[in-house]
Amino acid sequence: MELTFLTHKKILLVDDEKEILNMVSSFLKEDGFSEIQTAETVTQALTILKEWKPDFAILDVMLPDGDGFSLLKQMRNYTQIPVLFLTARGEDEDRLNGLGLGADDYLVKPFLPKELLLRTEIILRRYYKEENPLVQLADSKIDFERAQVWKQGKKLPLTAKEYDILQALYRNAGRIVTIDQLCEAAWGENPYGYENSLMAHIRRIREKIEENPSKPVSLITVKGLGYKLVLR
Amino acid sequence: MNSTFRLIRRFIKILLFSVAGMFLLNVILFLIFSYRGVSNAGGWEAAKKLSIELQKTDSGYFLSKSGQDILTERQAWAILIEDGTGNVIWKSDNLPDNIPLHYTAAEISYCTRGYIADFPTVTASHGDDLIIVGYPKKMYWKHMTPTFDYELIAHVPQMFLIFLGVNLLVVFLIYWISVSGIIRSVKPIVTGIGELPEGKNVYVKEKGLLSDLASAINRVSEKLMCQERELKKKERARADWISGVSHDIRTPLSMVMGYAGQMEEDLELSEKNRKKAAIIRQQSIRMKNLVNDLNLASKLEYHMQPIHPQPVNLVAVARQCVVDYMNLGFDSQYPISWETRENLTACVIEGDKELLRRAVSNLMDNSITHNPNGCHITVSVTETQKNFCIFVEDDGQGVTEEKLDAIKHTPHYMMSDNGIKEPRHGLGLLIVQQIVTAHKGKVMFAHGKKGGFSVQLCFSKVTSE
Fold it and tell me: What mean pLDDT comes out for the span B412-429?
């Protein structure tokens, strides 16, 4: 876990299988998370939610006294914490149902521990970014809250498009983000023919965040496919 | 509808031919009979002959032997009326008593046209005198007023045509009235039978001439619908069963996968044991893919996978698949190259983005599964005049000619209906085929240029109909 400030977040796990609860909490603990509580039923989960006030919840869909979807609806009455569904129900309708209710992600069992951790990290980073407004890059720092970049003590403002593109890259930091995903982040759905504009924006972003924009080390091109943001 | 029309047309044809034939037949019959009548009606001829056979001698009139024969043959009698006086100056021996022996001009005119005392009579001249021959009462019927309007006779051909036309019309009317009843009862049955193969629920009213047939059709339709429902039910049960199994297996498999993954990275374990854990994890991933594939394949096969068509950019789909693989970190053993022309940025078709993504990543999975020692995977998108194509090619161990042939032509065991067969290829390729078919595209399997396996997915540019 690169971002240590997130490891203090309180995580609630809800699943009717004790074994799964044990396993997932062991993964999370190994990854550095220390505050974890588990629940096997909807009732238990609601009690913990009210009393312990977790920052993030991983929910199963099928529970002995109800289902995860209705649990999410109930908890939305008093908390807006991010939620990830971890379930054996892999049908499209279930997934759409879950995401439609406002879940942040939907992961179908069986899953790789690494994938769960990565998704958890992404969600937490997205939700609790304000606690770490400065994203450290090799030659600069990005302040997403103020939409600006600090490079060698100089403050460089980001345009709206540059901000959207950098956000999309940062949310998937360390991973390649396709040209299409970036265009979608900046120009909305079905963005065809924005590739050249994207390249222009990337060039300008590099001028702001890179020491040597023609030899980038933070914002790397993967030819024909996309770009990758490398954190320090 | 068509067949009913054809039926009517054929009937009318037959009818027209038979009416024309009947007409011709009647004309011929009439000619034959009247010809016999004409040759028989030698009444007038006989009178002429008699006039020749009657000779005036000094002792009065003498009828020769052949003249006598003419009369006896016909049981006729004859008289000779003198010009001017109107007296009978000769008579045959068998003259009935009630025949007068003196005639006025009016009487002569009457008997020429008609009868003397009900005996049909004919005349012939004998010099200036007149021979009258009387035949037995039942031998001839005489037309008393043998005149017709000239116009009438002049228009006989037209008259014939009018007769023919009116006759035809009447016959057709009779036919129409009698047949329309039958057609009314046949038509719904013909329509019903026509609709049966379309799988519609057919109901024909069971009344009228052909109610038996109608009820038979209704029974057939009912049976077909029932069979289809049963089949759908079975298919649904099968798909549900597969979906249930694949659901239930997910939780235990999570545990296998999760702990194996954890052990793989546990530095306290020996290198050897960590490798074993890695194998368990890899195999459980295979199982996971298999379960997912099985579920999706059965849904696609039984049309239970909803397809949500929307504009999809194939370049974006392929690019996303490649990037997802790269982000998983398989690069070292399975390097992937993206070889799409830089200026080809939008290949938009109507399709289901998720399913298309699944198809492409299945192909990449396929390359990885079949090349445990690693291979180089190439993904590209091309545009031809009519199609957009996605290529996935590897330089791995490839397939033999027979295997390639089997992939191309033998149905998958999931779809084969002749008992349990050895699975010929993984579900992955079946799903690819199902997805591409659902998008009205084409899958082409071939040997790769560098010896491996190559698959091409082609989608028609014009998908909106």
Answer: 58
